[in-house]
């Protein structure tokens, strides 16, 4: 009995020495620890976002949350901001547009750029249409994940002849994290991609 008690005490001491771990918390460190553990356990990407003011969780005192990347765009559209992996880095704020003061760049411009990327626009085209810099988009973690997701969607549309439209929709939304309206728009282009060889312009190619 004494041995069991000692073992239990030892386990409890080790547990207390572990870093705090919470999916939602008032401070960043417990959420960072949780994110690291869940990514390792699940084998899928998770990110940390800030909780926007006015959200019920914010009112209760929480400020950070860990979410699966598949829901990232939904949270960002609701006013959350992405917290970078590097604790020393600033949150997901792009560099100012050339010729514009820092205050002239708004979060709405970046949101609009992300919407354009979901439609298949290049980073260059999205930057040109929104007035932010292409460098800002290239440094934006969410933007790069969108570009990769769209590229994967195009590959599926070009090569997957066996899946139903419903199955493609489920894949685009569930695995690629694509918003439902964009997923439907891409699936509608399925015949075009199956009947034509579509190749994304390589990096550094001429842009129109």
Key attributes of the depicted protein:
208 residues; alpha+beta; 2 domains; 4-stranded antiparallel beta sheet
The gist of it:
The protein is of the alpha+beta class. Helices cover 53% and strands 7% of the residues.
Task: Explain what the structure shows.
- The chain is of the alpha+beta class and 208 residues long.
- The protein folds into 2 domains: 14-92, no CATH class; 94-201, no CATH class.
- 53% of the residues lie in helices and 7% in strands.
- It contains 11 helices and 4 strands, in the order αβαβαβαβααααααα.
- It has helices at residues 2-17, 28-42, 56-59, 72-77, 107-118, 123-130, 134-139, 141-159, 165-174, 180-187, 190-195, and strands spanning 24-25, 46-50, 64-68, 82-83.
- It has a 4-stranded antiparallel beta sheet with strand order 1-3-2-4.
- The chain is globular, with a radius of gyration of 21 Å.
- It starts with a helix and ends in a 13-residue tail after the last helix.
- Mean pLDDT is 76; it is low at 88-105 and 201-208.
